[in-house]
Amino acid sequence: MSTKILAKFLVTAAVLLALIILVILGGCSGGEPAPEAVIPKVSVITIQPQSQVLTTELAGRTQAFMVAQIRPQVGGIVQRRLFVEGADVKAGQPLYQLDPATYTAALAQAQASLAKYRATLNSAQATARRNAGLVKINAISQQDNEDAQATLLTAAADVKVAEAEVQTARINLAYTRITSPVSGRIETSTVTPGALVVANQDSALTTVQQLDPIYVDVTQSTTELLRLKRDLASGALQSTGEGEARISLTLDDGSTYTHEGRLKVSGVSVNEGTGTVTLRAEFANPDHLLLPGMYVRGVLEQARNDQAILVPQKAVNRSASGLTTALLVVDGKVQQRELTIDRAVGNQWWVTGGLKAGDQLIVEGGQKVRAGAAVQVQDASDQAATPSTPVKEG
């Protein structure tokens, strides 16, 4: 009996030892705590309102401030050209000299006729005075006295006619020296010395254009014109005077013109074919950089918002239904918010609803998280979009 008891005891001890070993091994292999879940990181920018200008860009052409086409007022042979083509001329500066010989002779003839009529007038005055005295003593008839008075009036009228003819001859002689009516830059001459010209001919001898100041004619739709007038009236658009607004120029090579101009919005008519109006702006042009006929673009500041919110376009999502949303971090968790977009500004969106100053907008890593998820935040301000530029319309 003792041997059987001892054998059972040994078997039981072996089983217990095996169980203990299994428990120990199981504790070593599966008893370690599970690692903590990794919290994703996202890059954010902090919303900061900024000043933003709304502008309209209008296509236009430069026009000379004043244009004078030079034509002769009397006929004759061109003796000399008195200017350098392409140079600046002053008002009253001689441009051409016509042969004055015939006009000098005509003036001399008119002056001689005037002298003749003045002598006749003196004789008529003496006769009229004498007859006026004789008629009082009945030395002559009343008819003779009346004839003498009529002759006096006729002689006086003849003198007036002769004086007018002298003045006309003097004017025609002066017209043989053709002068510039305005100051400006003169173009090439269409005639040379020896050419025959006639009074008021169709073809101009040359043209003088005043370039400082200079006009810029721009076109705008009637809808935009009405809005422009409303903005001027409300004060949203800065005015330089009644019915005027400030405007700048972008030249054909993309550079900005140095001088600011004044856009006049009065006295316009609508083109029935295109539904547009032509507005005229005036610019200083002291260096004559602008020449007539150049293509330019007028940039008109229409409004300014000192609290505009602009965000990178990559941070905004648009659904198939047209819903515009963005992901933000609020209290360490992701929040989806609906936005209202006004327009694009370069590579940014101008947001008019849904965001406010201080909001943290996710710009990187948003595709890896969902609304309500906890996230780690890192600053991405150095990755933000470039600074804002004026918004251009039209």
Architecture overview:
- The chain has 3 domains: 44-52 and 306-393, conserved putative lor/sdh protein from methanococcus maripaludis s2 fold; 57-64 and 211-305, Elongation Factor Tu (Ef-tu), domain 3 (Beta Barrel), CATH 2.40.30; 74-197, RNA polymerase II/Efflux pump adaptor protein, barrel-sandwich hybrid domain (OB fold (Dihydrolipoamide Acetyltransferase, E2P), Beta Barrel), CATH 2.40.50.
- It is 28% helix and 36% strand.
- It is built from 4 helices and 21 strands.
- A 6-stranded antiparallel beta barrel has the order 2-9-12-11-10-13.
- It comes from Pseudomonas graminis.
- Residues 213-298 form the Multidrug resistance protein MdtA-like beta-barrel domain.
- It is a lipid-anchor.
- Keywords: Coiled coil, Transport.
What is the fold named in CATH at topology level of the largest domain? Answer: OB fold (Dihydrolipoamide Acetyltransferase, E2P)
Counted by DSSP, the helix tally is 4
How is the main sheet built?
6 strands, antiparallel, barrel
Which ranges are low-confidence, i.e. pLDDT below 50, for 5 or more consecutive residues? 382-389
Strand content: 35-45%
Domain module tally: 3
Gyration radius, rounded: 48 Å
CATH superfamily of the largest domain, called what? Answer: RNA polymerase II/Efflux pump adaptor protein, barrel-sandwich hybrid domain
**According to CATH, what is the class of the largest domain?**
Mainly Beta
How helix-rich are the residues, as a percent range? 25-40%
Strand order of the largest sheet: 2-9-12-11-10-13
Shape category: rod-shaped
- Structural class, from secondary structure content? alpha+beta
End-to-end separation = 114 Å
Integer average pLDDT:
84
Pattern of helices and strands: HEEEEEHHEEEEHEEEEEEEEEEEE
Return the CATH architecture of the largest domain.
Beta Barrel
Number of strands: 21
Pfam family, one: Beta-barrel_RND
Organism: Pseudomonas graminis
Family: Belongs to the membrane fusion protein (MFP) (TC 8.A.1) family.
GO biological process, one term: response to antibiotic
